[in-house]
Write a structure and sequence with these properties.
The chain contains one helix and seven strands; from the N terminus they run βββββββα. The chain has about 140 residues and is α+β, with helices and mostly antiparallel strands. The protein is globular and about 40 Å long.
Length: about 140
């Protein structure tokens, strides 16, 4: 998903694959996917096409982020929904209610991933180990 124009974000974002579970706060609908990019203020979530149908812009959702050091639970707002590549759908999420310590954990994780990528010199997406969801 490409966004033309000037960036509106205040937080640094980085391409990272992190497991995500989303629950619609009003209807209880659930969907699982992964991030395409992540920042302390939001993420771009990728899911199978058709899965996010009820998740429209403005929807409030509970988010479980599967970081390697443990899950982060927060509330987000869907700000954009679009078709992605390979039959996927993308949901742009803005974090609207997150504990300061969890926001700091996310920011630290993003920064560490960037440093690790620069040190390796590969510039590719980082896929962290662990943090997955148990079924």
């Amino acid at each position: 998903m490409k966004h033309e124009g000037r960036e509106k974000r205040k937080d640094f974002r980085f391409s990272l694959l992190v497991p995500v579970r989303l629950v619609h706060l009003e209807e209880g609908w659930k969907v699982e996917g992964h991030t395409d990019n992540l920042s302390a203020g939001g993420c771009l979530m990728v899911v199978a096409r058709g899965d996010p149908a009820p998740f429209e812009p403005g929807s409030l959702c509970e988010v479980d982020l599967g970081l390697p050091d443990g899950k982060v639970f927060l509330v987000s707002k869907v700000v954009r929904k679009a078709s992605g590549q390979d039959g996927k759908e993308c949901l742009a999420l803005q974090f609207v209610s997150v504990a300061r310590k969890d926001q700091d954990r996310i920011a630290r994780f993003v920064l560490q991933a960037e440093v690790q990528t620069k040190r390796s010199g590969c510039g590719k997406e980082t896929e962290p180990g662990g943090g997955g969801f148990q079924k």
